[in-house]
Amino acid sequence: MSDYSIALSGLNAAQRALTTVGNNIANAATEGYHRQKVNLTPAYSSQQGSTLIGGGVDVANVVRLMDDLLEAEINRQQSALNQTSQELATLQTVENVFGESLADDSGLSAAIDNFFSSLQDLTLYPAESIWQNQVVSSAESLADRFRSVRSFLSTLDEQLRVQIDSTVEAVNTLSGQIAELNESIQRIEIAGGSAGNLCDARDNYIAQLSEFVGTQKQNGEYGAVSVVVGSMAVVIDSSAFEITASIDGNGDYGIAMGDSNEYAAVSGGELGALLNLKNNILPQISESFDTLAQTIIQKVNDIHVQGCGDFGSFTELTGGVMDAGTLEDISSDIADGDFYIRLTDSAGQITRHKISVDASVDTMQTIADKISLIGNLDADVIDGKLVMQADSGYEFDFMPAVLPEAEEIDFNGSSVPSVSVSGLFGGDANDVLIFTVAGSDAVGNGSLQLVVKNGSGQTIANLNIGSGYAAGDKLDVGNGIYVALTSGDLVAGDSFEASVFADTDTSGFLAAAGMNTFFSGTSAADMEVCDSIIERPDKIAAAAGGDFADNSAIVKLAALNDEEFVEMDNLSFREYYSKMVTGIGQDITTNQTKQSSLELMVQNLSSRQSEISGVDVNQEAAQMLIFEQMYQAMAKYLATQQTLMTTLMDTV
Questions:
Q1: Nearest-CA neighbor of 541 among 300, 294, 355, 341?
Q2: CB-CB contact of 647 with 13 (8 Å)
Q3: What 3-state class would DSSP assign to 474?
Q4: SS3 469
């Protein structure tokens, strides 16, 4: 190689090095830029005799200073950070909407307390309109709070869907940009050039992509890369493949490639957070919230349908709109069982009638037909609603009060007494009490006794109706039931029965059909106080006894606040709601801790990245001085060679 070639190689190397240094300095503040370095190698040497002649310097390549594993870890941690941050922000919004804080009395917890507190007040003044109106007002506030929060959750669910679609669009856009840069990079690299700046631009897009979704980068030929999201390759060299979001076979929002029905597990980044929020976190919150509302509605209505207020019994009742089909298809709250209707005529004669329910067979119409068979009471399904109407001079209700007249009377004395039964059964399940006379004598004489057994044959009381008993006095049978006998003769073995009721609807039909219910609706989304209660607060079921003078129904309603229900993991309303809100708070705390940890990790990794790939202007200035001196020296060397050649030519 000639001296001129050596000089030119040095000038070229110095020029390339100075250009690289200048590029580094110009991009010192450019986000995603990686410092570049010129690798120089000795040029080919030649052997002339015993002398090895150097060939100058070659520019081997220009490389980006970077650690691929470090870059991949930064993207992975940034993806996890964005997912955590998105979930945290959404959960904090949910927590704020629930509005539960120590200084806030407008939250749902306060609304629940206010409602049951108003019921407790009504137990003291069951006939006072001011307390009845207070119950209606607090119940409307409670229902409004449920609907408001549920509306927010539904709106949030829709917003998440929109955000998912928007994020998928952003992912597809970035994938396209990465593929375009891949094509340009390959073209330059194949031609022997250096595409460092384009590689930085592409890797910056990949970093942005990792903020949207978890990604994996795989290096290919001539500087191109492939990018994988989940198990889907969204970029292969210069080709980009779009992903789509739609409902998968499980009813969740899933991510698939194009029109494929094969959904991939996607996590990380904003998209991973949005999918987790929509498919898991928000449905769990909404389900728990609906469970609370449904349980309050059901438990209140189950008691309310069996009571009456100052308004008294009914001449007509209209239920809520029900779907067509069998009862088990209409409502999961309806099961096989019975409900009982008390029918009272104008003379005060009361009869009780059983309607059997077969949930898998019966429909609303077949139940209406069974009711109509009672007589003096008509029922029909009109516009999907069960309508019951008593004949003139009759009224009906579903109260559990024991019938005043005994049943199945079998007296054999010469002058039999009359029997009256009263009270409200306090047992746990419906039963039949069987009264059998022990001894033979007149009521109030001798050692006459009434032996009382339950339907299982267990003796529950021995009542004295002989000497010392005054005819007509009430005797306490137990569990709230009383019996009285007038004067008359009884014979050993005489008997009578009395049906007692803890629940006049073991099927759940009445509450599900909206007959004399307090709340309408089946979830937090449609929970409302029934119009009939709003219009006539004196219809609030305070009494369950036959004379409408007791407060037993309202006492039961107020006591619901302290009961625990299997539907809510054996927790009370307040405990269940507190657990739900506390769970959200714990998730927020966990995500805050995780976010802080990830932020610190990303910061540390970024610092390490800066040490490897960042541009130090002072260091670059020192390099620039070295290559400037190299350039000047090589220029002087070239000038010297020129002078020597000129002198030689002049001599010749």
A1: 300
A2: no
A3: coil
A4: coil
